[in-house]
Amino acid sequence: MNTVSEKPLIMPDVQSSVDTRHVAIQRVGVRGVRHPMMLDLGQGPVPTVAQWELTVALPPEEKGTHMSRFVALLEQYRRQPLTPVGFVQMAQEMLPLLNAGRGDISASFPVFLEKIAPVSGVASLMDYTLSWTARVAQGEQPEFELSVLVPVTSLCPCSKAISEYGAHNQRSHVTVQAVFSDPAAIDLPALIRRVESQASCELWGLLKRSDEKYVTEQAYDNPKFVEDLVRDVAVTVRSLPGVLRYRIEAENFESIHNHSAYASVEG
Question: Which residues contact 49 (CB under 8 A, 6 or more apart)?
């Protein structure tokens, strides 16, 4: 009986074919990838889930990039606790994996930090939204950008000044976006504490009645406009070591209006 030998199937590498349009693409890759992430913020590994975006630059002569390799990189780092330094190293490893000269990695994720109530001393978790971005290129110094959203309380100085009793207050969001020259120097818990200390009062996940008295009176004794809040946070952020540039935003969710008060500072 005659047998026919089967030849291995050859899969064409379409992405590596030559493109004749001669148009370079600055950023191509994957975004909206929800994937586990291990963090190391100096207090032991902590699991979280991040929304990822990974992109590289594509030369004009190349037709496409290898999308599956981005996800393979995430799988490679899934169980490795990441610091800002490790995050930059991950981005640097992406370049040879994708045969690219330039690339970015961004991840946005929640972080929970334990806080102690000011009077009762009860412990609870407070959540913050954090984003990391690493920008790398062959032969260039990598760039690390951090963004953190910190919820606080603000109390209106004008309301306090014109009222016989009481003053309107609201929850506020302060967003700090900063580029650092040395990712190893970043102390996230300390940065969050600095931001919270500039508000009329900070927030806690759990408060007893004695704590509620404290936060009400603390805010009343420390009124701030949104302009005060964003300026005070900018002063403390620009004093941090290694900050190359920053953008501070403050949004007060007004309790007596159906709109927000907003301010932004860049430096």
Answer: 34, 35, 36, 37, 109, 110
Distance of CA 21 to the CA centre of its chain: 37
Both tokens of 113, joined, read 């930090």
Any idea where the domains of the chain sit in the sequence?
24-266
Question: Do 219 and 200 contact (CB within 8 A), yes or no?
Answer: yes
d(CA 26, CA 58): 6
Give the Cβ contact number of residue 25 at 10 Å.
Answer: 16
Tokens 């009481």 -> residue: 166
User: Are 73 and 28 a contacting pair, CB within 8 Å?
Assistant: no
Which tokens is 181 given?
């020259």
Burial class (CB in 10 A: 0-12, 13-18, 19+), 147: middle
Tokens 């969001």 belong to residue: 173
Cβ-count burial 185-214 (b if 16+ within 10 Å, e if not): ebebeebbebbbebbbbbbbeebeeebeeb
With CA atoms as reference, report the closest residue to 98 among 80, 72, 119, 77.
72
Say which amino acid occupies 254: E
β 102-116/123-137 pair status: antiparallel
The answer to whether the CB of 34 falls within 8 A of the CB of 15 is no
pLDDT digits (tens, 9 = 90+) for 4-49: 556 666 666 656 667 778 899 999 999 999 999 999 988 889 999 9
User: What CATH number belongs to 24-266?
Assistant: 3.10.270.10
Higher pLDDT, 120 or 62: 120
Reported pTM: 0.89
